[in-house]
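ARCHIVE CARD
Drawer: 12
Card no.: 0347
Subject: one protein chain, sequence and derived structure
Cross-reference: see card 0346
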Amino acid sequence: MTKRSNSLLRLASPVATSMGCLAGAAAVAAPLQFDLAGAWGGWSRPGRVTEAHVLLQSTEQTRANITLTSGTHVVRTQVQLAPGEPARLAVPMPSGDRIDVTVAREGTAVQQRELNLSLAEMPVLAWVAPARPPEPATAFHVVEVDAAALPQNGAAYGSIDALVIDRRELGALSEQQLAALL
């Protein structure tokens, strides 16, 4: 082997090692997408039950541990994720100032999100209709909601005091949403 070949090998070795480390790090854990939202656009009344919507998606088959905390109330669950398929959780939670959510899976850092709730002093009116609510609705705090965002748990309807829903919107509800409504 020539002197030049030895020099090239010495230079190539750290580069190959670095590339191997980077490839190994990428193979440890693909990113996990994690979104959080609340029923009724995050509005509720103090001391009532709302619903936290957790959306998870991974590029690989994995299991995620989810913890939701509202005051002293804690809910823990585990979800099996399939590559590219979103997992949606609708979890009834007591209405407080916020709901803290952590998602952990092997090989990745724990992800945390806060769902800050807005607690209304006035009665809450959920408006699910294409037409705008009449003005002024001074006796209520009006929250406009898409039919697709309606809760999947009946307990979450405790967050509101009244609901206006256009009958054409009822057809857009999932079976679970319809059961929760009725």
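Annotation on reverse: The two ends are 82 Å apart (CA to CA). Residues 3-28 form the longest helix (26 residues).
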